[in-house]
Structure formats: C-alpha cells, structure tokens
Amino acid sequence: MSSTVIRNVRPLGREAVDVVLTQGKISSLLPVNSADPALATLIDGQGQLLLPALVESHCHLDKTLWATPWRPNSAGPTRNHRISNEQRLLKDFKVPMAERAGPLIEHCIAQGSLYYRSHLDVQTVWGLQHVKDMLALREKYKHLIDIQLVAFPQGGLLTVPGTVELMEQAMDLGVDVVGGIDPAGIDLDPIRHLEKIFSVATRYQSGIDIHLHDLGEMGRWEIERIADMTDDQGMQGQVMISHAYALGAFPPADLHALADRLAELQISIMTCAPPHVTVPPVTMLRSRGVNVCSGSDGIRDAWSPMGNGDMLERAMLMALRFNWSKDEDLAAAFDVVTQGGAKALHISDYGLDVGCAANLMLIPGENLPDVVLNRSPKRTVISRGKVVAKDGVFMAG
Ligand SMILES: [Zn+2]
Predict the structure, then answer these.
(1) In a designed cystine with 170, which of 120, 151, 306, 383 is the match (CB 3.0 to 4.6 A)?
(2) Residue 126 has what pLDDT?
(3) What is the Å distance from ligand 1's center to 288 Cα?
(4) Does residue 396 fall inside a structural domain?
(5) Is 395 within a domain?
(6) What distance in angstroms lies between residue 58's CA and the mean position of ligand 1's atoms?
(7) How many whole angstroms from 298 Cα to the centroid of ligand 1?
(8) pLDDT of residue 90
(9) What is the pLDDT of residue 1?
(10) 3-state secondary structure 274-310
(11) For a pLDDT cut of 90, what percent of the chain falls above it?
(12) What is the Cβ-side half-sphere exposure of residue 374, based on CA atoms within 13 angstroms?
C-alpha cells in the first residue's frame, strides 16, 4: 500500500514526529526520523509546524470579483444600498462566476483552507443561475476540498415574492443549508421569517445558518427566538448564527444565561470579528461552552475590496479586535479557525490524530501564537494525503 511520510514535523508546535499518510488518512505517528523512507513518498517537514487544514466557515464565493481588474468600491452607506449596488454590478458583469470564484478557491487552498461554508445568493434577480454555477464549481474542486453551500436570501425572503420558492428549488438542486437574513432589519417580520426558514429546513432535514446583523435588544430577542425554535424543532447542533452583532451590545456577564442556552442547543456562533461594530464576546461564549467559528465573509466583492481568504489572518484579526496578546488567547484564535469551524460544519474526521483525514498544512514557526502573528506565506498544503500547494502557490489541477 503506497504511503507518504512527512518526516520531522511538530503537530501544533509539539515535539517532532514522523507522520504517515495512507489512503488520504493519517495512519500513524512515529518517533521523529524513524519512518522508513524506502517504503514511502517522503516530505521533509524540516521541523515545521503541522496543522490541520483551516476551516473557512463563512464566505460568499459567488459574489467575489477576485481575478478581475481592481474596481473602486461604489456601494452606498446602508445594507440595502449595498444589496442594490451589488445587484446592479453583477447583473451585467462580463466575467463569469467560474473565472472569479475558481481562482479565489485555488488561492484559498494555497493559504491552507480545505473546508468551506459558502453562502450562495438566492435572489429572484439571479433566478437559479448563481446556484447552478456554484454547484458546477463545487463539482470541479470536490477532489480537493469540501464546500457546504447555504441558500442565502440576500435581498430578503418575505419582502421579495418568489424567494421562498427559489430557496426550495436551490435545496432541490443540492444546496445543503437553509439561510436567512435579518428577520427584523431586512425582512421586517421576524417571527414569520424565522418560522419560514425553520419550516423549509425541517422539510429538507437540513441545517440553518442565518445572517443576523440586527443590533442591540432586537438582535438579542431574535437570538432568543432562534433558540426557542431550535429547541421546538429538535434541531440541536444544526443551527449557526452568523455575525450575531447584538451579543456584543451587552456586558458579557448579562449574557451568561443566553450563552448557556446556546451551548445546550449546540448553536454555533460565527464571527469575523470586524472592527466597526459590536461583536460577540468570544472568550465568554467559549468559556460557557458555546462553539465559535469564523470566516472571511466577503472577499473582494461589491460590498468591500477587503479580504484575502487567509484564515490565519482572520485569527490574527480576531486577536487584534479583542486586544488578545497572551499565548492562550492567540491559541484560542487559532482554535476558532480550525476546531471551531470543524465542529460547526460537522467534520467528523478532522484533526491530527490517527484516522483523521490527511488534510493538513506545514508552516514555519515556533509555536501556534507565532504562526498566527507571523502568518508565513511558505505553506505546504496537503489535501487527501497529496501536496496541492507549496510556498503558498496552488499546484493541483
Ligand atoms: Zn456573510
């Protein structure tokens, strides 16, 4: 049986070992320099850190303008302005999605991300074209990465007639998760919005991932209602709240009861830890057992030219947002973009133990905090046991 040996690597910065990969899995961890090189393809780890592949838990691959000429941002100041601006821009955009999102996916793979949850616009202005294009792209890269797709009613669910039916058609075509957006702020009818997405998710036996930017008391009330419905529908472990800005509007100690409820219902919180708005108190949430994951959100799109798809940079930005400098906090930021994402996305064979998928990254550094802060571009990425990127450059076809 052909195997690959990665010689002399330090799992998460610990003592050096040799790692044997067989049939796309980690088959053994051996004392350093003890694996027989004659029996296997050899990768010289050179004492680098060995990490599990990064998890991009929230992006919008379909929206990106990646690999196209620089375009000054033309969006207005409000969320509704940005939605209509994007509709205008993408409607007549000459570069098809595959030629924007494809290169972005390859770029993200080269940064070490091999697991993705991408929201996918389901809007009547696009019909099902966005969905079909993204499903084709997922098929193209399925030998390298796992992509979960969320049917995302960006323009509104109830306020735009025909969107619910389009969401159901997207689910019929193979989209995995039911999305939602600001039940109050965008859809103006929070209970009906939530009832609808829970009803569609129950029918398709899928999870839910809702964008919740609604702020303050309103947002907190909506989070409580999401918890109620998760409980009522028996959807423990199937719901993610993305952004949840409202959780940042209160002293963390006031949110302990709500955090305990989220933990009990296994509702994950996704935060990009942006600097311009209140954000969920990650340390408190994790200390109460709430799973927290992170993502890039938009990557160079009509909403913003920001973003580069590097989830190590996202971990650093999280640390910056919370003024974290202790080793344990920097390691926690790394945990959010790895184990937190794996838990939220239900990746069962994730990690560095024997039997885990050989989806890995080698990167120079002293330890995890050093890796998060330095973010070396010299990354070797291994997907299903094979090297697919070296020195930050995508190699696989
Ligand atoms: Zn988003």
Answers:
(1) 151
(2) 87
(3) 25
(4) no
(5) no
(6) 6
(7) 6
(8) 86
(9) 57
(10) CCCCCCCCHHHHHHCCCCEECCCECCCCCCCCCCCCC
(11) 88
(12) 14
Average pLDDT, the chain: 95
Two structure tokens written together for 93: 């955009």
Cβ atoms of 282 and 271 within 8 Å: the answer is: yes
Does position 365 have pLDDT exceeding 60, yes or no? yes
- Tell me, in angstroms, the distance from the centre of ligand 1 to residue 269's CA: 13
Range of the domain at 25: 3-51+351-389
Q: From ligand 1's centre to the CA of 59, what distance in Å? A: 6
> Residues near 162 by Cβ (< 8 Å), separated by ≥ 6?
124
- Give the DSSP H or E segment for 8: strand 3-11
Ligand 1 centroid, distance to 375 Cα (angstroms): 24
Supply the CATH number for residue 22's domain: 2.30.40.10
Distance 301 CA to ligand 1 centre (A): 12
Pull the structure tokens for residue 113: 């991300």
Q: How many angstroms separate the alpha carbon of residue 378 from the centre of ligand 1?
A: 29
For residue 180, how far is its CA from the centre of ligand 1 (angstroms)? Answer: 10
261: domain CATH number is 3.20.20.140
* Cα 28 to ligand 1 centroid, rounded to whole Å: 38
Q: Is residue 375 part of a domain?
A: yes
Distance 104 CA to ligand 1 centre (A): 16
pLDDT, tens digit (0-9, with 9 covering 90-100), for 157-192: 999 999 999 999 999 999 999 999 999 999 999 999
Residue 226 lies in a domain: yes
Q: What is the mean pLDDT of residues 93-105?
A: 94
For residue 41, the CA-to-ligand 1 centroid distance in Å is 41
